[in-house]
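F.,

This is the one I mentioned.
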């Protein structure tokens, strides 16, 4: 028969427990190794992406500086155009109003003259006067 004292049984149980722990720990340790490798690969890929992003951001910053200069020039141009428009408008406004007023006055006077001459011809016909064209 098998005879063992308490210490031997405890030692056997501890050894058996340790064996079970190792058996279940091996797949977990392998998975941790794979995860660490994936994290390392991801870190390398992230570094490459960050380097590319830094290059893009630097180029964008340069272009932004160029755009700032362009917008500054546009502001200066719009200010110059506004001043030029005010100067031209001030110099042209008065003569233009005078010219338009003269044209409208001439048009009104011409219409009045044409209408008044038609009234004179019709009043001559009413008074017995004959038109030269009608005699022919």
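My design for it:
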């Amino acid at each position: 028969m098998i005879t063992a004292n308490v210490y031997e049984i405890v030692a056997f149980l501890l050894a058996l427990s340790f064996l079970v722990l190792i058996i279940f720990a091996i797949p977990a340790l392998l998975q941790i190794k794979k995860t660490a490798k994936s994290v390392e690969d991801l870190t390398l890929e992230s570094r490459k992406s960050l380097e590319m992003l830094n290059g893009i951001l630097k180029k964008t910053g340069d272009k932004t500086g160029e755009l700032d200069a362009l917008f500054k020039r546009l502001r200066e141009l719009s200010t110059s155009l506004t001043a030029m428009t005010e100067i031209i408008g001030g110099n042209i406004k008065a003569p233009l109003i005078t010219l338009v007023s003269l044209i409208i006055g001439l048009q009104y006077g011409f219409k009045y003259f044409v209408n008044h001459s038609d009234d004179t011809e019709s009043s001559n016909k009413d008074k017995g006067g004959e038109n030269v064209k009608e005699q022919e």
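The chain has one domain: 8-119.

Talk soon.
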